Amino acid sequence: MAEAEVRPASRVTERDVRRAMWRHILTLQWSWNYERMQALGWLWSMLPILQKVHPDPESLKEAMRRNIAFYNTNPQIGSPLIFGAAVAMEEQGQGEVGDSLKVALMGPLAGIGDTIQAILLRPILAVVAASLAMAGSVAGPVIMILFGLAMIAVMPPQFWLGYRQGVGLVHQMAAGGAIERLTEAATVLGLTVIGGFIPSIMAGLKTPVKFVRSVTVGGQVTEKTIELQAVLDQILPYMIPVLVTAFAYWLLRGLRLSPAKTLLVLAVVAFVLSALHIL
Amino acid sequence: MEGYSIWVAVILAVWAYIAIVTMLGPGLWWHEPLISGLVTGLVVGDVGLGLQVGASLTLMSLGMHTYGGATIPDFMTGAILGTAFGALGGAGPEAGLAIAIPAALLMTQLDILGRAVTTVFIHGADAYLERGDLRGITRMHLWGHLPWGLSRAIPVFLAIWLGSGPVQAFMKWLPQWFMNGMKVTGAVLPALGFALLLAQLPVRRYWPFMVLGFVLFAYLKVPITGIALLAVALAALYGSLKGGEQHG
């Protein structure tokens, strides 16, 4: 097999690869946290591979440090694919390439995966299942249970696809730009979808502020109400969701706050604005 | 019936624990309110009520998803408590929902608390990593689900064990400004998920695509599915056009 040639000194067995895959599928988010999100689950899943590739403790530590960096994407649609490719690259001592692939793909695939799951599949299924349940049929929740199982069934094939492509990608790298092109396409896709997501997901953010003025028109006093939201909509629809997202982005990138601190600031701002009846 | 035996409280608390941890991996979707409504209905002996409460909460949760780690109302816990209290003395689905909805909103607090506590485990893992202690890293990861599971199991146990009186009294005791603040916070938090995603992407170079997606939704009212399809076409076109430049 051609693959055998590109696996030089590594003692990684198929059993190690399977173990990594199942760790990833079964426990990825168990240690999810605001700071680095799925990072620890990613590292723990990768450990069976890293231990074999890096027998030397110092080089193992170095590899582990790389693998505990921030990671977050859709765990069911997307993550097994990314992880499969990264496993293949770690196995061939190309971990750094795997890292950049991971960073480049996690955002777009989170967008794609979340779209497929939460915008396409789940709402359609939920409406069907809920209406069946409303009519008293147990078929409603049963459909949901089957849906959950179907989501797991799509995970191993993604992993193996990523794993095989990951091996291929390392070869194509010298030939030129495969990863860059893939990353570029994924970025275009991800950002376009996010652009639509920001207003649609946060459409509920509106201001109830009204200005009531007594105006005298032709000798008659009438009350005139100006709704701030209508004015904002004329300037830019969904202005509040856009501003809030920009504010959160500025806290993260501009002020370099951690996700946990950003969350705290957003919550405080939300409480203050709600107490002032601005939101 | 005035209340439940302690065993009903224990069983439902264990279910809440399992349901939230399977959501973290492998994602069985047992945290769906419809499934938790059915399970609770089976435990308390009123499946029909469980289906009704679960279905109502499912319809309320349409379009809600934990993007990038945002917190949404916990309809799973809401379904458990709503079904359990709705079945008490034949109180019915309306009474169940009257408990379920505020409980789901209130649980966002505990969700945030649970998620915040898990930071301990990543810092622990960092320390074990530097010592080269792989078992330590494994422990940190596998124990990570404790705050998640307990943040659901403890309130479910207490609420069902104590009964509906104290729960309703507690809900009434909560001031209105707090509930409003929670609601606005819930609406604002998806922004954190988007910002986290954007921070990972080369926004400076590719921002026009984001503007395009925004215009499609905000001005042209294209549904998200349509935007996603167009985005696939754009990505393919962009790739082939760039490829053409290089070869030409």
From TrEMBL, chain A:
Q: Which keywords does UniProt give here?
A: Membrane, Transmembrane, Transmembrane helix
Name residues in a coiled coil. none
The entry's cellular-component GO terms read: plasma membrane
Identify one Pfam family in the record. EIID-AGA
| InterPro entries for the chain | GatZ_KbaZ_carbometab, PTS_IID_man
List all membrane-crossing ranges.
119-136, 142-161, 182-205, 235-252, 259-278
Q: Which domain of life is it from?
A: Bacteria
Q: Which GO terms describe its biological process?
A: phosphoenolpyruvate-dependent sugar phosphotransferase system
In its UniProt entry, what is this protein called?
A: PTS system mannose/fructose/sorbose family transporter subunit IID
Q: Which organism is it from?
A: Caldinitratiruptor microaerophilus
Q: What is the lineage of its organism?
A: Bacteria, Bacillati, Bacillota, Clostridia, Eubacteriales
TrEMBL record, chain B:
Q: Tell me which GO cellular component terms the UniProt record holds.
A: plasma membrane
Q: Where is the signal peptide?
A: none
Keyword Nucleotide-binding assigned to the entry: answer is: no
Q: Where are the transmembrane segments?
A: 7-29, 150-171, 177-199, 211-238
Localisation: Cell membrane
Listed GO biological process terms: phosphoenolpyruvate-dependent sugar phosphotransferase system
Q: Tell me which UniProt keywords the record has, alphabetically.
A: Cell membrane, Membrane, Phosphotransferase system, Sugar transport, Transmembrane, Transmembrane helix, Transport
Per the record, membrane topology reads: Multi-pass membrane protein
Which InterPro entries does the UniProt entry name for this protein?
GatZ_KbaZ_carbometab (IPR050303), PTS_IIC_man (IPR004700)
Is Glycoprotein set as a keyword in this record?
no
Coarsely, its chief localization is: membrane
According to UniProt, the name of this protein is PTS sorbose transporter subunit IIC
